Amino acid sequence: MQRAVTISLDAMGGDHGPSVVLGGAALSLSRDPSLRFVLFGDQKAIDAVLATQPALKAASEVRHTEVAVRMDDKPSQALRMGRRVSSMWQSIEAVKKGEAQVAVSAGNTGALMAMAKFCLRTMAHIERPAIAALWPTQRGRSVVLDVGATIGADAQHLVDLAIMGAAMARIVLGVQTPSVGLLNVGVEEIKGVEAVKEAGRVLREAGMAGLDYRGFVEGDDLGKGTVDVVVTEGFAGNIALKTAEGTAKQIGGYLRAEMGRTLMDKIGYLLARRAFSALKARMDPRTVNGGVFLGLDGIVIKSHGGTDAEGFSAAVDLARDMARHDLMSKIRDMLEHTPAPATP
């Protein structure tokens, strides 16, 4: 029997609010009846959705909040105005209080990170948190981090990212010793900025039991799935993520335009429809929805704000796995055996 997991949800987060958040939670509950939820937000709006979801209602506790963080709020503004009273803050605070093991929100990313860092603080020996994303590849999936939590990184931060990413990969990819690569402008050890080269030296010489360091990887290795974990700082990681999302949409647009251009194209599409359906499923961003905030003293998952119920459910499933397989303990155990980079 699966160990029960309690998840706190910011029911007002995202572009669609309770309808998508609770719809996604209901889908996850149908796959795993051991889940329990604490729902934060406008009770009237939440109750209206729960009236159509009796199983979710029975598995949930609703806590009314007056304030919802808007998608266009600045992080400082959201922290100042929504601290302690917003659905976002209270969903995070439930993790701090031990009322839930993990929080999920589709709300404003900057506000969520600011509140999570302020409320939960960072883990011991971790200076800055990161956002880790699942990345579809030719081999399956990889973990990529940081995809936008902080800009810039020294060698210590990159080493910390490698450790945290490997701990997450052990859970979501089922790999006991995940392979790890540092994103760089070339695979040769002489290339790259000093922070990347120093982080590579530490990881290469440390021989940590929890990860298999494979050296530098380049941008095209992201799609190939060359390694299980790709490590980079938040500026480059966010650009890579947005570029990949845009390229996927571009290719999809090209295919749709070409498949309806002539009668022969339409016939060709009908003959290859199963193959195109399989391709669409593999490229569906909903299946890898959910960014994990790593480095905090508690687990927070960020769902894409514009996703639908199926996509939000993927974020809930990811949250369940992170909590059930004790991500925090795995990170702490690996951090204890990590050598420090050389001081410049």
By CATH, the superfamily of the largest domain comes out as Isopropylmalate Dehydrogenase
Largest sheet: 11 strands, mixed
The total of beta strands comes to 11
Query: Topology as H/E string?
Result: EHEHHEHHEHEEHEHEHEHHHEEHH
- Based on CA atoms alone, the radius of gyration comes out at 21 Å
Order of strands across the biggest sheet?
Answer: 3-2-1-4-11-10-5-6-9-7-8
The number of domains is 2
Q: What's the end-to-end separation, in Å?
A: 51 Å
Summed up, the helix count is 14
Please mark out the parts with pLDDT under 50 across 5 or more consecutive residues, or reply none.
Answer: none
The CATH class name of the largest domain reads: Alpha Beta
Q: Which structural class do you get from the secondary structure elements?
A: alpha/beta
Estimate the global geometry from the Cα principal axes.
globular
